[in-house]
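can u do me a favor
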């Protein structure tokens, strides 16, 4: 059997194992070992290659960025920064139609810049924003959809775990990927905010009632500005340091983690038990990511040895269709896969194959990374998997049903697709800021 056939069968088995409920890391590692063994005909060669791959993967200096940014997000959440962000946004936007909904989106956008995980955003804002929406008699499904849709920003606005994984898989600059996500993140924030305002304009019952805003005073205005100063300052320091060349992404992660810890101390939220829980939670998070990335490197090595990625690239380039059709097909595959597996697994499975094709077709690698991540994030809202939806259900318990959250998320999936089309159509939105670095 030739190497190409072995590789195709191996990829098919990866999907089969995942659908059968086998852990994605175990699936990738098992198939990689068996695939290289079948290609080379020697089990010892397969084991030696994969041992070397695993060792070189974890020795990469850039891997340190993962635990550091995870800790930054966990410390900032422990400090109570999310409630401060939400209260300040509500103060300034509460007077608008759909103000609390738009405030949730903007607070989520800022929170995304310290956490990098959509599921965390969904869980936190379910507890903060949803009770307030219920008090103002927002339509339940609409309110749940706002939280779910805006939580997607967690994986787009830097620092993003998906961007780190993408950078490791494709050897792209993680710093440039981070900076590239800023303008598209603003675009998505604007589209969702405009969508909320428009939906309430067409159907005022969705937005409940608007309570009389608090009396405007200079002291209340200054308090609303000053309350979230620490977390906003931390974001500016970390992202500005990367953009200005003061820090590498790994150094920025260290600064962010230290700054997040200082926030906990300054806000008087520090306890030894809380510190222990944060370290344990962070350990579980980044150890699972490390396992996935090690196994993904094995998978990529198997694809390289087989020549599958090269063959697919040559085949795609030879097709008598415009590149936009091929890229559109890739994005469609992302959305379909999002219905059955999580976003990190999608990256691990298909990016080693699709990224070289996109680059050969003339797409800027940073731009393709951003539109890929936006598309994959749509999958976080799609049934039956919908990780964001299940995170919200876990946070709210019996107060809501899965069906309500999925139903409320549908309009926001459309808004995300509109955002995707804008970002795809205008590549400068993704590549302008990185070009200034």
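np, heres the sequence
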């Amino acid at each position: 059997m030739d190497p190409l056939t072995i590789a195709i069968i191996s990829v098919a088995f990866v999907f089969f194992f995942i659908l059968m409920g086998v852990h994605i890391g175990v699936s990738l590692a098992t198939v990689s070992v068996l695939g290289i063994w079948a290609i080379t005909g020697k089990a010892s060669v397969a084991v030696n290659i994969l041992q070397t791959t695993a060792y070189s993967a974890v020795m990469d200096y850039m891997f340190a960025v993962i635990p550091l940014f995870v800790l930054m997000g966990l410390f900032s959440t422990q400090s109570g920064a999310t409630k401060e962000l939400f209260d300040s946004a509500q103060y300034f936007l509460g007077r608008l139609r759909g103000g609390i909904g738009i405030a949730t989106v903007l607070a989520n956008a800022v929170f995304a810049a310290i956490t990098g995980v959509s599921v965390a955003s969904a869980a936190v804002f379910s507890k903060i924003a949803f009770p307030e929406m219920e008090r103002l008699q927002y339509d339940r499904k609409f309110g749940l959809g706002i939280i779910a849709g805006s939580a997607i920003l967690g994986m787009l606005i830097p620092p993003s775990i998906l961007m780190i994984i993408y950078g490791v898989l494709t050897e792209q600059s993680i710093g440039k990927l981070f900076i590239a996500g800023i303008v598209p993140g603003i675009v998505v924030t604007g589209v969702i905010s405009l969508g909320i305002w428009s939906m309430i304009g067409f159907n005022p019952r969705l937005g409940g009632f608007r309570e009389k805003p608090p009396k405007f005073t200079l002291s209340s205005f200054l308090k609303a500005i000053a309350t979230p100063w620490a977390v906003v300052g931390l974001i500016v320091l970390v992202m500005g340091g990367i953009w200005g060349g003061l820090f590498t992404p790994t150094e920025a992660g260290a600064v962010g983690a230290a700054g997040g810890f200082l926030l906990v101390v300054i806000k008087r939220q520090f306890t030894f038990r809380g510190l222990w829980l944060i370290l344990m939670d962070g350990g579980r998070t980044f150890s699972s990511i490390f396992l996935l990335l090690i196994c993904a490197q094995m998978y990529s090595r198997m694809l390289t040895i087989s020549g599958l990625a090269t063959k697919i690239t040559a085949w795609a380039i030879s097709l008598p269709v415009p590149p936009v059709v091929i890229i559109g097909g890739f994005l469609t595959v992302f959305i379909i896969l999002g219905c059955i597996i999580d976003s990190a697994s999608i990256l691990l499975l298909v990016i080693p194959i699709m990224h070289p094709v996109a680059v050969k077709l003339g797409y800027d690698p940073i731009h393709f990374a951003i539109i890929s991540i936006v598309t994959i994030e749509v999958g976080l809202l799609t049934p039956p998997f919908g990780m964001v939806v299940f995170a919200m259900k876990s946070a709210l318990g019996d107060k809501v049903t899965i069906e309500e959250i999925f139903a409320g998320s549908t309009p926001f999936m459309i808004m995300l697709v509109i955002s995707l089309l804008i970002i795809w159509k205008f590549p400068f939105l993704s590549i302008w800021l990185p070009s200034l670095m």
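Residues 3-435 form one domain. hope that helps!!
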